Amino acid sequence: MAATTSVADIANKPAGSKQRAADIAYNVLESMIVTLQLKPGTPIVEAELVAATGLGRTPLREALMRMSANGLIVQLPRRGLIVSDIELAAHLSLIETRRVLERLIAASAARRATPQQRKDILTHAKKMVAATRKNDLKTYMQADQALDTVSHQACRNPSAVAAVIPQVMQCRRFWYAFQHEGDIEADAQCHMMLATAIANGDPDAAVGAADALMDYLDSFARKVIDK
């Protein structure tokens, strides 16, 4: 669900790699927003973010621009940039759209993944299942993010990945906000089904598993909305 990126990683970027710093800034701020460290409606104050993260102003500004495009940040008249609200009703249509993309990504990954990618996808899914037994949310989220990353690389469809990433982030934030209504074990089992299908090179099973995951997210969202 949410990436966890250390600000200290900036020290390891190649000299003069402006884009690398912007990527790290994006990952750090995404994590802060998705995990509700920066709650919906929170004003974005550049100086405060610089102080809190240790990131430079230029990569922060680039990250904020990308987040505006992805819908995590919005610009309001006379209020400036704020963290976007979680729109309950709109979340169902988001999942409906995400379903189409996830089916494509899953089938493509099952066809195109390398042997190492298949192994890695299965490993990350197993870590998710193990983390549920320990009630280790941090490890669960890290493994989920890693599974997505490898699956997205394996599908070899950059346009589908670019389209789905904003939806994935919104779903992760939704889950963090309402996790008390969720079933992390069911979510983990859906990811294991998907990982197994991709690892086995079975596109039809991968599509079915992607549908099962979206079915779970849809039922979770409806449970929250109906409260």
Written description of the protein model:
This protein folds into two domains: 7-83, Arc Repressor Mutant, subunit A (Orthogonal Bundle), CATH 1.10.10; 88-225, Four Helix Bundle (Hemerythrin (Met), subunit A). The chain is mainly alpha-helical. 71% of the residues lie in helices and 4% in strands. The protein is globular, with a radius of gyration of 18 Å. Strands 1-2 form a two-stranded antiparallel ribbon. It has helices at 18-34, 46-53, 57-70, 88-112, 115-133, 137-155, 158-177, 184-199, 203-225; strands at residues 73-76, 80-83.
Secondary structure class reads: mainly alpha
Secondary-structure element series: HHHEEHHHHHH
Tell me the CATH superfamily of the largest domain. Answer: GntR ligand-binding domain-like
Uncertain spans, ≥5 residues at pLDDT below 50?
1-18
CATH topology of the largest domain: Four Helix Bundle (Hemerythrin (Met), subunit A)
**Residues in helices, as a percent range:** over 70%
Total beta-strand segments: 2
How many helices? Answer: 9
Please, how many domains? 2
Q: What would the principal axes of the Cα set say about the shape?
A: globular
How far do the termini sit from each other?
A: 23 Å
The major β-sheet equals: 2 strands, antiparallel
CATH architecture of the largest domain: Up-down Bundle
Mean pLDDT: 89
Strand fraction band? under 5%
Note the quaternary state here: single chain
Spatial extent as radius of gyration: 18 Å
- Report the top-level CATH class of the largest domain: Mainly Alpha
Main β-sheet, spatial strand arrangement: 1-2
